[in-house]
Amino acid sequence: MTELVRLERRAKVAIATIDRPERMNALSWATVHRLGEIGRELASDPGVRACILTGSGEKAFCAGADLKERQGMSRSQVREMLGAYRSELGWLASSDFVSVAAINGVALGGGLELALTCDLRIAAQAASFGLPETGLAIIPGAGGTQRIARLIGESRALDLVLTGRRVDAAEALHLGLVNRVVPSGESLLEAALNWLEPVAEGAPIAQRAALSSVRAAQRLPLEQGLDFERQAYERCLDSADRDEALLALSEKRKPRFQGK
Ligand code: COA
Prior knowledge:
It is built from eleven helices and ten strands. By secondary structure, the protein is α/β, with parallel strands linked by helices. Bound molecules: coenzyme A. The site of coenzyme A has 17 residues, from helix 2 and strand 6.
């Protein structure tokens, strides 16, 4: 069987590549489960500081649900699939490491929802984005309505969800749908890896504390969020890396972080 999602490592960064270019990297049942398996594998490896999720080929990041497979699915199988999106892909938003969608082509429907589940997004100039589900008489069902509204605001989210229109990378950047766009001719993956270097090389305890604290802002009322931040800060304050950072500053050298 061909591998549906390839997993490789570049030092502390894992790279997961959906590898079904003949189906525009669409999310079949098996692909979703393979992504879940990858999440579980990476969770047991404390050396992973970031995970880049991308698609193979130049055309598609992911064209959403595998519509060919979907045609043969019963309603109850579709319901199971919706549950699997949540259980198998949720790690992208909750792991100890940062997740980054490197959007190399079209990100449509569940493909855009997959990118929205990641913490950060970087896109190739030629990428395009859309949530066409209402045109198919359904709605985004992999967290899309919730995550896009939180990310870009209700009004902009409604524009994309109700019209299903496609936007290009420049508009996606303007909307705040992606953090960065990489000019054509430059390597998207290398740009993502360069972007992540401070994360991969940074102090692990502080990186985890910062990630969990900013994520918490999405779900907690401000007072509770401030308490959360305070506790996260405590973990940094108690760390040997924090002392090393101050020492390195006074000795005018780069710090050597141990994750302690
Ligand atoms: N699921 C399964 N197969 C898909 C797919 C999907 N979501 N999207 C594309 N494919 C397949 C096509 O069926 C085609 O295979 P075939 O040649 O065996 O028929 C192949 O990928 C290439 O697609 P094609 O449409 O010929 O390429 P394109 O470059 O003209 O267009 C897309 C690419 C992605 C824009 C177009 O295929 C599309 O709009 N797909 C549907 C996306 C969608 O609506 N997703 C949301 C689902 S809720």
